[in-house]
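Justification of computing resources. Each target in the renewal requires a structure prediction run like the one illustrated here; the chain below, 182 residues long, is used simply to show the kind of job we budget for.
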Amino acid sequence: MQTEYRRGKNVTIYPFAKIVHNGTNFSVDDYSQIDDFVFINAGKMCKIGRFTHISSFSSIIGGGEFVLDDFAGLSAGCRIVTGSDDFNGGFLSNPTVPMKYKNVVLDRVTIGKHAILGTNVIVLPGVVIGEGVTVGAGCVVTKDLAPWGIYLGSTARRVGERDRSGVLAREAQLLADTFPES
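Resulting structure tokens:
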């Protein structure tokens, strides 16, 4: 990690925040605050606007792009995911598996001006949260949210089956490629 990046005036980044960047893919603008125990992996690009706040135990991960517009905020424990393994199809997943065996989706997450995300909100790749939106605690945001709305609720339900045979075939191929003598 490099220490050089675009940093506005009167920015507070507390000492136990962890920001991983390459020096050009991260910026934080004037009068913004990033609390202790925030983890940011800037991925392709992470732009944090003016007068924003990212509260403790929040994370921005995934390798894609992230924009937090002016006057917006993330409450404690928010998870912003800009990239993820696509679990559809017969692919393996997790960071220890080489890319050729995985199906990774990288995208952009944009949180508009004056938007506020409640405690433990999860935002998935490709989502645009419109200007002025409020998202209640514990919501999982999987699609765009129209400006100035108040959004609540989250329900997990079974919607399909994973490709068992495809996953197991890729596992066998990875093991054969990695340990040819076995």
